[in-house]
């Protein structure tokens, strides 16, 4: 188990930095399915695992509780909260609004967005050159959608979109544990990108909405057993 910091902390700035590292590590464990809904742990055991005192651990855990990812019970300690599928649907709907608006602007702007060139290099490739690792494709998928929004040049839209991305990442990455969903992502992203390049806003928006709706439909199929199976596959790598 890797340590996120020294066993003893001194100044407030050092403690704050350790709390940030603990926060990032716990989130990484959730994103990689090393922690799944229902898993329980104590502040003490987490501190031992990470090589830090309980103070930065507690600060990180309270932050994650405020984000709705964790909760705590007086007798049984901390646990990963169950998935709120109603909230997830709302977040996916917000994604559609933000990304559809971004695609429409990209199709109608005077000059093509320079950011599209980087996306073309990733997604408009022969099938033989496509990546197969679900974790890598999941990260590239996030970058694809974030880039479409960021390329518009509206910082507030990009900030809200990234917040949505953070909140759905744990479930969203389950979509890339299946080879067929990886292949579908490449095909759908390529169609969306070509429509934007060809300045076809209606077509691009329709393809984008269908792409996100399909992802949302896959989320509806996710069960606790699927999360545990994903963790087993992650551990077997």
User: Which structural class is indicated by helix and strand composition?
Assistant: mainly alpha
Number of strand segments: 3
Q: Strand share of the residues? A: under 5%
Number of helices: 10
Enter the CATH topology name of the largest domain.
Four Helix Bundle (Hemerythrin (Met), subunit A)
The CATH homologous superfamily of the largest domain is termed GntR ligand-binding domain-like
Q: What is the subunit organization of this protein?
A: single chain
Give the C-level CATH assignment of the largest domain. Answer: Mainly Alpha
Strand order of the largest sheet: 1-3-2
Which residue ranges are poorly predicted, with pLDDT under 50 across at least 5 consecutive positions?
none
Corresponding CATH architecture of the largest domain? Up-down Bundle
Pattern of helices and strands: HEHHEEHHHHHHH
Average per-residue pLDDT, rounded, comes to 88
Give the N-to-C terminal Cα separation.
16 Å
What is the CA-based Rg, rounded? 20 Å
Number of domains: 2
Principal-axes shape call: globular
Largest sheet: 3 strands, antiparallel
Share of helix, binned: 55-70%
Overall description:
It is a single chain. This protein is mostly helical and 237 residues long. The chain folds into 2 domains: 12-80, Winged helix-like DNA-binding domain superfamily/Winged helix DNA-binding domain (Arc Repressor Mutant, subunit A, Orthogonal Bundle); 85-221, Four Helix Bundle (Hemerythrin (Met), subunit A) (Up-down Bundle). It is 68% helix and 4% strand. It contains 10 helices and 3 strands, in the order αβααββααααααα. A 3-stranded antiparallel beta sheet has the order 1-3-2. Helix 4 (85-108) packs across helix 6 (134-150). The mean pLDDT is 88.
């Amino acid at each position: 188990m890797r340590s996120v910091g020294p066993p003893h902390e001194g100044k407030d700035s050092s403690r704050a930095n350790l709390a940030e590292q603990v926060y990032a590590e716990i989130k990484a464990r959730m994103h990689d399915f090393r922690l799944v809904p229902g898993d329980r742990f104590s502040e003490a055991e987490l501190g031992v695992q990470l090589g830090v005192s309980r103070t930065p651990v507690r600060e990180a855990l309270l932050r994650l509780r405020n984000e709705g990812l964790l909760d705590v019970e007086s007798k049984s300690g901390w646990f990963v909260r169950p998935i709120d599928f109603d909230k997830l649907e709302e977040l996916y709907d917000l994604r559609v609004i933000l990304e559809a608006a971004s695609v429409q602007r990209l199709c109608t702007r005077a000059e093509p967005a320079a950011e599209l060139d980087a996306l073309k290099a990733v997604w408009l490739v022969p099938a033989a050159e496509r990546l197969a690792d679900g974790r890598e494709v999941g990260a590239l998928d996030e970058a694809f959608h974030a880039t479409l929004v960021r390329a518009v040049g509206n910082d507030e839209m990009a900030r809200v979109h990234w917040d949505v991305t953070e909140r759905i990442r744990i479930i969203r990455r389950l979509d890339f544990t299946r080879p067929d969903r990886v292949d579908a992502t490449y095909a759908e992203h390529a169609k969306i990108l070509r429509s934007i390049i060809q300045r076809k806003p209606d077509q691009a928006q329709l393809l984008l909405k269908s792409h996100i709706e399909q992802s949302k439909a896959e989320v509806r199929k996710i069960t606790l057993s699927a999360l545990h199976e994903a963790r087993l596959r992650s551990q077997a790598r």
